[in-house]
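so i finally got all the pieces together for this one. its two components total, 700 residues if u count the protein bits. some of the lines might not be protein, just check the labels. i wanna see the whole assembly predicted at once instead of chain by chain like last time, that was a mess tbh
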Amino acid sequence: MYQYNEIDQKLVDERVAQFRRQTERFLKGELSEDQFRPLRLRNGLYIQTHAPMLRIAGPYGLLNTNQFRMLAHIARKYDKGYCHFTTRQNIQFNWPKLEEVPDILSDLATVQMHAIQTSGNCMRNTTSDHLAGVCVDEIEDPRPYCEIIRQWTTLHPEFDYLPRKFKIAVSGALHDRAATQLHDIGVHIVKNEAGELGFRILVGGGLGRTPVIGQVIKPYLERKYLLSYLEAILRIYNLYGRRDNKYKARIKILVKETGMEEFSRQVEEEWQHTKDTLILTDERINAIKAHFSPPPYDKNAGADTNFAPNLNENPAFATWYKHNTADHKIAGYRAVFLSLKAPDVAPGDMTDTQLDAVADLADRYTFSQIRVTHRQNLVFADVKQADLFTLWQQLDQLRLATPNIGTVTDMICCPGLDFCSLANAGSIGIAKEINQALDDMDYIHDIGELKINMSGCMNGCAHQSVGHIGILGVDKKGTEWYQLTLGGSSDNEAALGERLGPAVAKNEVTKAITTILDVYVKQRLEEESFLDMVKRVGIEPFKDKVYANH
Amino acid sequence: MQIIKDNQITNDAWEYVPDDAELGDGDMTISLSRLQQEGKEILNRTGKLGVRIVPSDSIEEIADFLPDLALVDLYFSEPNDGRLFSHAWLLRNRHHYTDEIRATGHFLPDQVFYLSRVGVNSFCPESADYLSATLAGLKDFSVNYQPSVN
């Protein structure tokens, strides 16, 4: 993974010093709340319902074990002993004290971490595929390009006060695991007819109040133009994006109101001025690529003979193997998912003890690196099949081996009303209730791939509009209600869910979900996934049952 | 009045003249709309002329006047309107403007490092109390990741 040089370290250290001065000025009354807000947000600090919330960057979801131990330290020293992993591969602490935040950032800087631009109307953490570099369907490892974009976006002097937040995601595989169509800019690594590597650039995607699927603005961009083209898009957005209404300020609205054809023309014209002045050289690409060379794989990993008997003799292990591991491009290796969705745990949460223990396991079994997934789980990307059984046993003890990856209980969930000042309704409680109702693992596995995404308000942090089942908390005269959608997807064929009907009351959500699942189980064709069935039959059969008694 | 110019606190005599006031002699800035209405005839006077740009203005519209302008004043009605950062960049990079670009109005000392990187070389903070913080803000960072004007 990328290792800081002196410049990287200096930049992060100077940022900590700057924020320390800003916090001191605020506490002394020299900065008003209005003046301090954009400054603290650009350092990941929100003022929430109960306490400040600090969001720390997980650059394209890749962390090392020292960084994990630092998260454990922060959870213990400054927080209540746990942290939360987000859909954008970041880490959140829910209980820091404002006056201690500079110290937290200073501690993070010692392990090459920061909270720069994790919030505010600026370019955010670049996200990517959690199986980058190891998956079997990869065209090229996206991480070096993510790092190049990370550096370019960090403290960009021209684009730090954008109309609204701006998110970039990069995918290098055939299967889009980074939801690139739902980002302000999506970057796909592709090959042209001559076999040369370049990028397909999408623009104008996004979730939130007005979910929109991104459109292709550049079908093929030569590698050397990556940054100049991004710069052109950002300049047009910075100059012409709406600033009169924050709900209409994302680039998706600019693209929609300008029209894709005219927007592309403006970007193209801008780009012609600068394309040759900001060239991404092969030398630079190769220098960054060197940070992501493959680890020293065991060439004989596939020759192991212990794995197969364990798989045959231990059904629980076999179930976990089937659901929580993925193919690896090197024979004898698997990518292992650590489920952060144990039944009675808030989705995406981890305790300090778990963080430390996971760091130890990663040192032992996966070259000391851990990835955070877009669905709020973790990945050990390079585990030898010979180690899988032992690793499973240890993860099981840590309650990180629930075999539910990609299933109905692997829910994406925002912090909701329990923590977030924006939320209209609770989400963690509902997630726990659904989890408790679905306690039969055989039933869950029979349902198969089904993604439930639940947000506590229409800002949509948990991407409910692209959940196969989406749950959106809304406020109706001071009480919590939930709107359901079906048929959304953030995969290659991205789609926005269709609204099932009127919102349901809080105590009816779990019943509605189990009813939807029952309709699916009874009416599906052989091997038909939930999403495919919704595409085939529409929402009516589900609607009829869910609202049968209304 | 004191401002910061080219990294130093210095005395300054530039004045902004509202559209409904008469333009006397001396170093004066006027609005873009006044400049457009009165055209190049406004240059026939004693003293230097500058123009005040607000975020919604287009830099293209002052391009023809730039050789005659000694100052472009980027006026922040509030700190978070980032268009002025692109305006400064365009003035320096696209239009090769070499005279003074000044930030005025409600910007914060915490923004002047970025402003200096995109080509702003003088700063008139909204209060004289901010002068030393503004000067210090220019040195918030000693490194950067991407090219800009500076």
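The mean pLDDT of chain A is 95.
Chain A touches chain B through 31 residues (CB under 8 Å).
anyway lmk what u think
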